[in-house]
Amino acid sequence: MSASPFDPTPQDRFSFGLWTVGNPGRDPFGSEVRPRLSPVHIVKKLAECGAYGVNLHDNDLVPMGSSARERDAIVAEFRRALSDHGMCVPMATTNLFSHPIFKDGAFSSNDPRVRAFALQKTMAAIDLGVELGARVYVFWGGREGVEADACRDPRTAILRMREALDFLCGYVESQGYDLVFALEAKPNEPRGDIYLPTTGHMLHFISTLKHQARVGVNPEVAHENMAGLSFVHAVAQAMEADKLFHIDLNAQKIGRYDQDLRFGSEDLKQAFLLVRLLEGTLGGKRYDGPLHFDSHAYRSEDEEGVWDFARGSMRTYKILKAKAQAFDADPEVRGLIRERRDAALDPLLSGACTPQRIAALKALQLDPDAIAQAGLAYEKLDQLMMEHLMGVRA
Question: Do residues 284 and 324 lie in contact, with contact meaning Cβ atoms separated by under 8 Å?
Fold first, then answer.
């Protein structure tokens, strides 16, 4: 069978987490439906599917409580598998949410012993990530939140998280690691409310850190959609700020629990606009970092269905990339979105606020009623986009 142009290859920079394809299908109302897969087996199968990388939490690979000898043996076997199958570890992270010690937060906990353990665990996990070659380190504060809001001043929680990030940035610098941090926002679940719930919140928080240049964001489709927000706009803000260090791709029905569905399986229009943004087909700067799928196969699947899910995630991205390229190359589309130029006005709308610009803008004779009468043809533009997506326009 001939190869499809949409079959994934390592050059596409697609990655999955050990916890994603390794998810055995357990949920709050039912036990596991698939056997657990070993990290070595996951590496082999992802390579066969065309992925280039595999990401991990510390305990996805090394169980908590492992001895130093056990840890080193596990890591050595995993590194051999990566080498054997031409795979890499682009990103690593720490599990600061599963163990009962984190029931009221990690970095934000009221108990200083918990905060100390969280820092200790994270330093060890950073060491592991760097040993495996990771260049990005993600922080998802799944337990950094509340149900009983009276338990602490939210400002105190933010201060504690700032102190933790400042310390860990200092740790990375002290060790000479070539590593950046990416902060991942989520509005709720597993906590009733999670601090810094959106990418916008995270971007402002970064501006308060001592080591701002080392810290960016890791937006996730589902997390912004859970709050009813536009993920495309969140990613665009991160890109405009040069803070998109990593991205989590999946799908989500608005207003539902965190579903982590296969990328593009819900709201194909927004998925298209996201890929268009990331690939820069409209002309903007392209994102060239890892494309990570933080999602799970349906609980209905056996192991073969898991690899169907992985291949489908990557194929959908590549199909949407081709659609975006065709859409932005369409002469009719280009005519509709071509930027209007005005030799007299353009110089007045950018640059420093000078007395000359102030005077010129105040002196303009503009007729708002006449300007408002012009149609913008956005209905036609949106229909053209739908026709490209539905495959009736080449």
Answer: no
